[in-house]
Amino acid sequence: MDQLLEQLPQIVLVLVLMTSVFVTSLWIGMVLWTFRDMRSRTRDWVAQILATLMVAILTLPGLFVYFLTRPKETLSEAYERALEQEALLQAIEEPELCPSCGAKVHGDFLYCPHCHTKLKKSCPSCRKPLQMDWNLCPYCGAPQAAQVVEPVLERA
User: Fold this and answer.
1) Is 113 a member of any domain?
2) Which of 7, 66, 84, 126 is deepest in the core (most CB within 10 A)?
3) Is 4's pLDDT higher than 90?
4) Residue 59 contacts by C-beta under 8 Å, 6 or more apart in sequence?
5) How far apart are CA 29 and CA 116, in angstroms?
């Protein structure tokens, strides 16, 4: 028992050292993670430094405040969202393609200027361009007869 009491200060010292190494490693990990996370969310270096200092000084409460105040999305997520929005806008603004030859055609073309395929039919009442499968004109309400799609051949 006396031998255990003599070694007790050494055991306590080892335990304190191990605990301090663990806590220090945890603290350094939190600070580095905060810096890297904030760097992925903003290009503002002042915000990056302030968030890192807040976690470095306040430790766990600082990390909690950081979680509450950090930007919602990362820069790469914002970039991907912007690309998706631009692609959607481009798809809306982009002209249609001819189903026969793949050439770009405007939405109001009745025939493809390249391969002469009939793209749309015109309403016999109001003469507006209609989709081939429509059986009612949305502009004037006139009923439409079904038509067969055939390419128009040039006469030589």
Assistant:
1) yes
2) 66
3) no
4) 27, 30
5) 67
The predicted-structure confidence for 87-142, as pLDDT tens digits, reads as follows: 888 777 666 888 888 888 887 888 999 998 888 888 888 989 888 888 889 999 88
> What's 151's DSSP letter?
B
Examine the domain organization and report whether 41 and 104 are in the same domain: no
Task: Based on the fold, state whether residues 103 and 136 are members of the same structural domain.
Answer: yes
| Residues 72 and 100 reside in one and the same domain | no
Q: Is residue 94 classed as helix, strand or coil in its secondary structure?
A: coil
Torsion of CA 30, 66, 38, 48, to 10 degrees: -100
Residue bearing tokens 């979680």? 67
Range of the domain at 39: 2-76
State the Cα–Cα distance between residues 119 and 40, nearest whole angstrom: 48
C-beta of residue 76 within 8 angstroms of C-beta of residue 43: no
Same domain, yes or no: 116 and 152: yes
Confidence of residue 148 (pLDDT cuts 50, 70, 90): low
Residue 106 lies in a domain: yes
The partner residues of 136 in beta bridges, in order of sequence, read 143
